[in-house]
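Changelog note: in this version the structure field was regenerated for every chain. One regenerated record is shown below for reference.
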Amino acid sequence: MLRSTLIVGATTLLRHIRKGRHKPTPWLTSLLERKPPKLVAVALANKFARIAWRLMISGGVYTGR
């Protein structure tokens, strides 16, 4: 359930990027140039999961940089 929710969130972010509502990071831009969109969504969801895990373990607060 969590995995599919993260992938839906990543897919939504990619949709916002395509419509020009959000500017992609350099990492995401290079990934989109090299890989198919569905694979990029899974990689982005994995990144979200790693950030969430790190915040849960450390008790930190996400700043969004």
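Spot check on this record: The helical segments are 2-18, 26-34, 37-58. The longest helix spans residues 37-58.
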